[in-house]
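Renewal narrative, Specific Aim 1. Our central claim is that a sequence can be written position by position from structural information alone. The example that follows is taken directly from our test logs and has not been curated for this report. It begins with the structure tokens describing the chain, in the order in which they were read.
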């Protein structure tokens, strides 16, 4: 008799993987990797824990997939800014405004998953901490590349340091995440973003 493959055991017939993954993303977004319990994941995804392990592997594997979904969905304003061919100032202003709106929406958890995903950082070699750090670094590197391209096009002064500017933008982005969780209002954050842009990228 042919045995059922282990990877398929426990998976319900009408399993909507994409919907379950988005539900898991929201749990991790709200509670972080360490704070999200299997009970919370089971309740949100509406499948039992054996089915979660069969479909996604470990909790860490599920978290990694959830982060990738976040980056390509709720975090896509940053990616759009990095591929926009218009003036870099306009692209970054739009990115910050959209990011503030996303981070402070009331219908979803506040803040940024890749900033707040590891509430308890643990040792520097912790795989979840390393994974999130790598996601943030990937964005910083792409920011630097976008700013270098803008400098080469004459949109920024020749002496502008794209690495420093990219780090400033990332620091502000990360700060927005904390401020939205702390309840700072959208109007205040948008005004702060305008001042930040005016000082960092004077015309």
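The sequence written for that structure reads:
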């Amino acid at each position: 008799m042919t045995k059922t493959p282990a990877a398929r055991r426990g998976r319900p017939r009408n399993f909507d993987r994409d919907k379950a993954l988005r539900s898991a993303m929201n749990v991790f977004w709200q509670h972080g990797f360490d704070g999200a319990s299997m009970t919370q994941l089971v309740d949100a995804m509406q499948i039992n824990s054996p089915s979660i392990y069969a479909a996604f592997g470990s909790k860490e594997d599920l978290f990694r997939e959830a982060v990738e979904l976040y980056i390509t969905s709720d975090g896509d304003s940053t990616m759009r800014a990095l591929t926009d061919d218009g003036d870099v100032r306009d692209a970054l202003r739009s990115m910050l405004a959209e990011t503030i709106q996303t981070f402070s929406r009331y219908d979803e958890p506040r803040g940024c998953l890749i900033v707040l995903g590891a509430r308890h950082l643990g040792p520097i070699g912790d795989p979840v901490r390393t994974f999130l750090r790598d996601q943030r670094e990937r964005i910083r590197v792409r920011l630097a590349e976008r700013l270098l391209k803008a400098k080469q096009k004459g949109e920024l002064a020749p002496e502008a340091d794209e690495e420093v500017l990219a780090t400033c933008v990332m620091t502000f982005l990360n700060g927005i995440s904390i401020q939205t969780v702390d309840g700072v209002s959208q109007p205040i954050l948008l005004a702060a973003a305008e001042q930040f842009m005016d000082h960092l990228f004077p015309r």
